[in-house]
């Protein structure tokens, strides 16, 4: 339960906050955030995808992409 862990205080911090099953509390999440999805491809492979919402996170992901891929 989000209230039992003082969720709003966690959102106000500068730390990275990872939430399992964020769709269960989507209405309480900030409009601007970075969605990270980890999926199982098979027994030894995983897929990681990013969905930025808001200018700050779009810029961060573009910088990350340029450093990793070079585009």
What is the number of beta strands? Answer: 2
Task: Report the structural category.
Answer: alpha+beta
- Report how far apart the termini are: 41 Å
Give the overall pLDDT as a whole number: 86
Radius of gyration, CA atoms, in whole angstroms: 14 Å
What general outline do the C-alpha atoms trace? globular
The fraction of residues assigned to DSSP E strands is 25-35%
Indicate the low-confidence ranges by residue numbers: none
Order of helices and strands: HEEH
Number of H/I helices: 2
Q: What percent of the residues sit in helical stretches (DSSP H or I)?
A: 25-40%
- The quaternary organization reads as single chain
Tell me the major beta sheet. Answer: 2 strands, antiparallel
Spatial strand arrangement across the major sheet: 1-2
Please provide a written account of the structure.
- By secondary structure, the chain is of the alpha+beta class.
- Helix content is 28%, strand content 27%.
- The chain has helices at 7-12, 55-68; strands at 33-42, 45-53.
- Strands 1-2 form a two-stranded antiparallel ribbon.
- The longest helix has 14 residues, at 55-68.
- The radius of gyration is 14 Å and the shape is globular.
- The relative contact order is 0.13.
- The mean pLDDT is 86.
């Amino acid at each position: 339960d989000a209230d039992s862990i003082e969720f709003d205080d966690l959102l106000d911090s500068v730390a990275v906050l990872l939430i399992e099953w964020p769709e269960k509390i989507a209405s309480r999440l900030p409009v601007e955030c970075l969605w990270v999805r980890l999926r199982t491809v098979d027994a030894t492979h995983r897929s990681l995808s990013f969905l930025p919402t808001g200018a700050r996170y779009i810029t961060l992901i573009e910088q990350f992409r340029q450093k990793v891929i070079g585009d």
